[in-house]
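USER: Fancy drafting a protein?

ASSISTANT:
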Amino acid sequence: QMDARAMHKSFQRIGQTQPGIYTLFVPFPFVQITDYDILREAFIQHGDDFTGRPQNEVIQEAFTFAHNTENIFDMSLNPGVISSVGDVWREQRRAAISILRDFGMGKNVMEELVRSSVEDYLQHLETMEKSNVDMRWPIQVMVSNIINEVLFGFRFKYDDCQPLMDYVLRFNSVNQYIVNNVDRALKGYKVEDEPACFAQAYKQRMADNKNLNELNLMSTCADFFLAGQETTTTTLRWAMVLMAKQQEIQDKLRREIRSVVGMDRMPSMADQINMPYARACALELQRYANVIATNVQRVTQRDVVIRGQMVPAGTWVNGDVHYIMANDPIFVSPEEFVPERYLREDGTNLRKVAAL
């Protein structure tokens, strides 16, 4: 029997008796992959065969339980990046990557935006009562401000972030949150002007591509906001807990940071090549925190053979990253937080171990 409130636990129980790959009937066939090598074979070696997304009335109802006047989660309309398929997906992905690169993704411009948000976060912490600091909301606002500024061109202040808090506390308000902020970003914007954020740049490209429209703009912004905010925020909260619990790891990480970065400046991406332990800590944090209980499901676009087994076209497939991170033999003692598992014996280079 499946526990609808904790599906990952049900999958874990089944995976321990059906190793590698198995099929559930719910009531339609649903293939679950719980082995790292099989997952790579399916999603990398045969990646083009697994690019479909589920279209199902039950799933549709789950995504549209909110007041959904803009239909930004209506999967029957094939919107956004995460849920779309075919030409719409390709065009949303192409446009999104191009726009984000224009705004400095992977470059110093984006790094400066992140650094600025971190500095605001640290300044806010300085104003708080030192004997009892609640890190939950400050981390949420810091991460949200990075995404918000990219998408909509503004950031929240720590003493004026009620709309963001309302969104987090009541998920069904996400529709209106996205709609309101896209409207705010586009208010007064003319397509001949230089865009200052993702929403404006997307609007500028709409005239030249039939698959770029208001619905897909809203849906793509929602995809980025949901996918980027809660996962990053939750992972950073885990970092706080784990570093507080394992002081020896925190001390070792601090020594490396001070040795490479010093005390007089913020770290930069250029420093990471000289900080193998910090990189190992980040990889192990993502593995251990394991914040995605159930990944985005895929649908086979055509018949495909995986490990000698035929998976027919139209089959739902889930790569159970949650199970792999917690159970796969590639991770020795997976219940322990061990950054060294990602380091070679010399401690200065990363192993080529799975980092999903």
About this structure: Strands lie at 21-25, 29-33, 298-299, 304-306, 309-311, 316-319. Residues 214-245 form the longest helix (32 residues). The two ends are 29 Å apart (CA to CA).
